[in-house]
């Protein structure tokens, strides 16, 4: 552990963020935990939404306040992954999305980074006074389920949504 640090996005990370987005689009992967980066036309558009979504007073319609972090390699400054912490849950998040979403770029997977990112995100949850954290994943995403379980989660149930099954895990923090 301690290969990564979570940092808040800043304009100086623009190039790294856009490269991260490009890698996900080229590989056809979903971009969980990126605060809507896939749908943003520009970094500036995404960064504006990121700033708005930090606070209840300015959060965009239909969303809950959330903080998106970049998981940066301590060794070389590479953007390894992203993690989004929702400060509270709405009905959809309670059933399908959870408090935390995350992704690791394809070129950095299967090295334990997701487990470390989730562990770091749980530290941030304590700071946000979130004592019981919901993390979800698709049932067929075995790697994500292992990441969640490795951080002390217990499976509560599975929910069928259209043609996919979402597993709902809870992690209790001290």
UniProtKB/TrEMBL annotation:
Gene3D superfamilies: 3.40.630.30
InterPro entries per UniProt: Acyl_CoA_acyltransferase (IPR016181), GNAT_dom (IPR000182)
Keyword Transmembrane (UniProt): no
Domain N-acetyltransferase: 4-174
Keyword Transmembrane among UniProt keywords: no
GO molecular function, one term: acyltransferase activity, transferring groups other than amino-acyl groups
Keyword annotations: Transferase
Name this protein carries in UniProt: Predicted acetyltransferase
């Amino acid at each position: 552990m301690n290969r990564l640090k979570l940092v808040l996005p800043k304009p100086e990370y623009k190039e790294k963020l856009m490269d991260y987005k490009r890698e996900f689009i080229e590989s056809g992967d979903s971009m969980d935990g990126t605060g809507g980066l896939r749908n943003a036309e520009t970094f500036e558009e995404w960064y504006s939404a990121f700033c708005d979504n930090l606070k209840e007073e300015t959060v965009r319609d239909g969303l809950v306040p959330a903080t998106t972090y970049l998981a940066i390699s301590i060794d070389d400054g590479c953007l390894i992954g992203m993690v989004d912490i929702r400060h509270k849950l709405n009905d959809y998040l309670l059933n399908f999305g959870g408090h935390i979403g995350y992704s690791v770029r394809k070129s950095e997977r299967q090295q334990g980074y997701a487990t470390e990112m989730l562990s770091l995100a749980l530290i941030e949850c304590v700071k946000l006074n979130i004592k019981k954290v919901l993390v979800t994943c698709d049932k067929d995403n075995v790697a994500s389920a292992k990441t969640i379980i490795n951080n002390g989660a217990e499976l509560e149930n599975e929910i069928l949504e259209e043609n996919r099954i979402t597993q709902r895990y809870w992690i209790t923090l001290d």
